[in-house]
Amino acid sequence: MNILMKMKELSQILKLLFILKTVSVFIFPLSAQAPQVTDSWESLRSRPFPQWFTDSKLGIIIHWGVYSVPSYGGPESYAEWFLRGLQTGQPNRTDFMRRHFGEEFTYEDFAPLWKAELFDPEEWAEIFQQSGAGFVILVAKHHDGFALWPSRYAPGWNSMEVGPRRDIVGELEKAIRKTDLKFGLYFSLPEWNHPLHRWYIDPNDSIHDYIRNHMIPQFKELVGTYKPHVLFTDGEWFNTAEDWNARQLISWYFNLVGPNAVVNDRWGHGSYIGFITPEYSSGILQTDRPWREVRGIGRSFGLNRNERLDAHKTTDDLIELFVRMVSNGGGLIINVGPYADGNIPLLQQERIKGLGRWININKDAIHGAGTWKRSGELKEVTLSRIDTAVNFNWVRNSPGRPLSEDNFQATWVGYIMADSSAVYEFSVVADDGFNLFIDNKLILSEGINPNAGTQSEAMRETFDIPNPGSFFLEKGRKYPIRLEYFESIQNARVTLYWKHGEKPREVVPTKNLYVKNDSESENGLNAVYTSMRQYIAYTKNNGNLYIICFEFPEEELVLPIPKPEKGTKISMLGREGFLPWRYRRGNLIINTSGIRFSELPSHYAWTFKIENYE
User: Fold this and answer.
1) b/e burial code for range 28-43 (CB count within 10 A of at least 16 → b)
2) Rounded to two decimals, what is the model's pTM?
3) What local confidence, expressed as pLDDT, does residue 597 receive?
4) In what order do the strands lie in the sheet containing 58-62?
5) Residue 525 β-bridge partners
C-alpha cells in the first residue's frame, strides 16, 4: 500500500515538473536563453544578425491604410504620402479630392470609407508563401498616424474604432505565424498631424514632448503586444538617434523578442545599427552590414491608381533586380499595396508568384548564398528615343529599360527656335549634374551634388534654385542645343526652363524644339541614355559557384574566371545532366548548344552551377 502511495506521489511530482517545464518554455521562450543586451551602442552593434535573416534574401512589405481609399498621386509619387500632399497644397491631390469628394472633405473623412471588406489574412499568407519570401512586414502605422491595431494612443484613429473595425495587425500576425514565414512590423517614428508635433511643419527640435508622451508608449504597446521578428522604423531623418531614444528602445526590443529579432537602420543620425534599407536604388552597396533594397513593383508603395502599366516591373525585371541584389551581397524587400477592400491587385500577385517560382527552381543559388570575389559581369547599355521636352522627375527609378536606376547619363541634342527675338534666360533644375550648350557655347554647368539625402528619404521635399544663363535668340532661327545630364545615386530629375521679358519661367515647350534643322523636322530632341548594366551575376553556396545569366547564351557561355580543376562538373539548375566545357585564353567556355528549349526550367534567367569551385 505504501509503495502504491509513493508511486502515486512520484507520478504527481513528475506531472508537476512537466507542467512547470512547459510553462517556463511558454513564458520564457528563446529570449530567456539569449544573453541580454544593454542599451549601449557597443552592446547593440556587437549583437549578431540571426541566421534566418542572413539566409532570407527576400521579404514582403505591405502598405495598406487610409491612404488606400484615394490611392492616388502623381505617376512617380508615393500614394501613401497623400496627406502630406494635401498639407503642401499639391494641385494633383487637392484637385482630385475636391473634384471627387467635395470642398469640405478632409483626409480624416477617408477613414470610415476604408472598409477592408475582402481582407483575408489567410489568403495573404498563402500568397506571400508562394513568393519565395522569408519574412513579411506589415505597415502598422505610417506617417499619417493611423494605427492598424486597437491602439489606446490613437483614439478614434485606429482600425478597431473606425473603418475596418478589425485588428489588422493581430489577424495577419496569427496567419503568418501559422506558416514558416517570419513576421515583421513597420512603425513610423513621427507623424504629420499629431498635436504634440507635426512632422515637416513644426521645428525639428520641438519633437521631444511627442516622443516622450506618444511615440515611446505607442511603440511599446505595439511591439510588446505582437513581438515581431523584424522591426522596421522610418521617418527618422530630421533627428538624432538620441532624440528618438533609439538605444533604449532597441535594447528593450531585443531583450523582449530574443535572438531571432532584427532591426533596420532608420533610427536617426548617429545610430549606425541594423540592416541597411536603400530605397528605389540600383542596389549596389559596399558595406559591412546586411542590406535589403526596398521598393514597390511600381513607383509607389501604397496603391497608386494613377500609375501606368509600364511603370510596373515585369516578372523578368523583378527577377533580374532580385538577383542583382543578392549577387552584390544584399537582398530585396518588395512591396504590395492592396486595394482598400483588402484584395491584392492581380498584377502584383502575378509578379511576386512568378518570382517565387523562379526562386524555387534556383534556390541553391539564393537561400543562404554569399558573394563571390566579384558580383558579376557588366556591359554598357543604351536607350535612344525622341523626348518631346526635357522635364523629368524619375525620383529613384530608371528612365527606362535597360538602364540602371543610378549612375546613368543622358544627352539631348537638336535645335531650339524662339517665337520672338529676345534675350532668353535659361535655367536647369537637376539632380545631379548637367552642361547646357546653345549654338555650341556653354551656357550653364553644374557638377554632381554630393548631398543627395539619405538612403531612406526618397520622398524628401526639394526646392528649385534658379541658376539662369542668358542667350539672345533671333525669331525664326534654329540654334543647335545640347544638354548633358549626369545622375549619380538616389533621386534623379532634370528640367530645362526658359523665360524672357515679363513672362513667367516655363518648361521649354515642345513646339520650340526640333530634332533636325529642316522644315520637316519632328518636334522634340534626340535623347541618348547610357549606363552600365549587370548581365551576369555570381553567387556562391556550399563550395559551389553559381552563374546567373539574364540573357540566355545560345551556343556557349564565356566567363572570364579562373580555370576549374580537371573533371569539374557544370550543370544548369532545373535541368538534368552536365554540360561540356573548355578553357581558353583566360576564359571558361561552357557549351550550351545542346540545351533544348523544352529543357529550359525558366524563361527569365538561367543559373549554371560549377561544383566545388573556389
Assistant:
1) eeebeebeebebebeb
2) 0.86
3) 94
4) 262-263, 230-234, 182-188, 135-141, 58-62, 332-336, 293-296
5) 387
